[in-house]
Amino acid sequence: MKYTDNAINIITAKTYKGIGRAWINKMLKGNETVEAIVSLLNNNSKQEKLITIEDFEFDKNQITNQIEIFQESCDGLVAIGDKNFPKYRGNVKESERPIFLFYKGDISLLDIENSCITVIGLLNPDEKIEIREQKIVAEIIKKDVIIVSGLAFGCDSIAHKQALNGGKTIAVLPSPLNNIMPAKNKSLAFEIVEEGGLLITEYYDEHKSAMDLSSRYKDRDRLQALFCDAIILAASYAQDTAERWKMFGQKLDSGARLAMGFAKDYNIPRAVMYDQKLDVENPMFDLNRQLIAEQKDITILTQKSLDDLINKVKSKNEINNKKNAFQPGLFG
After folding, report:
1. How far, in Å, CA of 160 to CA of 165, rounded?
2. Which end of the chain is more exposed for a tag (fewer CB within 10 A), N or C?
3. Contact yes or no for 30/10 (Cβ under 8 A)
4. Are both 35 and 143 inside the same structural domain?
C-alpha cells in the first residue's frame, strides 16, 4: 500500500476535535512538518487542551497501524500536497473539497487531463431504461471518456458494466475498501479494477451509526459530482414521488438527486435522459421532469445533444492540456 508521510499527517490532523475539510483546506497546503501542523492546531482551532508533538506522533502511529490492516484491499492513499492527488472540477467550497482518498486501481484516471462523465440514476430501473442508458454509456466510451458512478444497484451498476465493454470506469464508494458496499456488487468492484479501472473512497473505518452512514452516502454523491466534467441522470424519482404516486412505505432514491444538486452548486454541466412521448407517465422520471421544468441549464439528451456534450467535455480538456503543455517552466 502506497502512501506518503504527508498523507498520514493530513488524516491525523482531521482526527482532532473540530477539524474538518474546511479547516484543513484553509490551513494546510500539504507537506508541512509535524511541528507546523501542531502549532496550527494549537493556535488556530478550538482544542480543549494543547497538543504536543508527542501526542500527534502517537496518534499518527495509531492511524498508520489502522490503515495497514487493510493494505491488501487498498493500493494506496493520496492527500493534498501529494504529487498524484487528483484535482477536483468546478467551483467547490472548502468544506466540500476532498483532502485525502484511498484507492484501488489506476489513480491516474482521476487526472484533470482526463475526460470524465458521471452517469447515475435509480436503484430499480425498468428494462427500457436499462437499454437506453446502455446506449448512452456506449456512445460516451467510444470517445475515450471515463465513466464515473457510485457502484449502487440499478443505474450505477448498468453504467459501470457497460463501460467495461471497451472503456474505463471509476466507482466512488461510501465505505472502506475492505468492506465494499453494497456487498453484492463486490465482484463488480473487483472486475472494475481488473479491467484497469478505479475504486475510491474517503473512508478507512466503519460507520458508527445510521446517521454516519447516511452522511457517507452524501459524501459519495458529492465526489461523483466534483470528479466529473459533466453528469448525466438516467432516471430517478423526485423527493415527493411517494406522495404523488401513492407509493407509501417504499424507500425512494435520494443519491441521484443529491449528486445532481452538488453538480449544480459546482457549475458542472448536467443532462437528463428524457423523452416526452415515452416517459411522461413514468414516475421513475419524476426527478428528470422536475429538473427540466425548474432549471434552464439542463440538457435533455438526444443523439445530437449527447454528441455535443461529449465533444464539449473533450474539447475543454484538450484546451486545458494545450495550456498546460505550453505553460512556461521555471526558466521560461
Report:
1. 9
2. C
3. yes
4. no
Strands (E) in the chain, as ranges, are: 76-79, 100-105, 116-120, 146-149, 169-172, 198-201, 230-233, 270-272, 298-300
pLDDT number for residue 243? 63
DSSP string, 117-173: EEEE--SS--HHHHHHHHHHHHHHHHTTPEEEE---TTHHHHHHHHHTTTS-EEEE-
Q: Which of 11, 60, 4, 45 is nearest to 201 (CA)?
A: 11
- In this structure, of 2-11, 64-73, 313-322, the range with the lowest mean pLDDT score is 313-322
CB atoms within 10 A of CB 51: 18
Instruction: For residues 19 and 147, state if they share a domain.
Output: no
User: Any residues with CB less than 8 A from the CB of 332 and at least 6 apart, and which?
Assistant: none
pLDDT digits (tens, 9 = 90+) for 160-171: 999 999 999 999
Are 199 and 306 members of one domain? yes
Query: Cis peptide leading into 283, omega within 30 of 0?
Result: no
Q: Which domain holds residue 56?
A: 5-85
Residue range 128-162, pLDDT digits in tens: 999 999 999 999 999 999 999 999 999 999 999 99
Q: What percent of the chain has pLDDT over 90?
A: 83
CA distance 103 to 258: 23
- 163 and 297 inside one domain: yes
What does the longest C-alpha to C-alpha distance in the chain come to?
A: 68
Q: What pairing do the DSSP bridges indicate for beta strands 270-272 and 298-300?
A: parallel
* Cell numbers for 61: 502511529
Q: How far is CA 269 from CA 62, 135, 216, 221, 234, in A?
A: 42, 20, 24, 16, 15
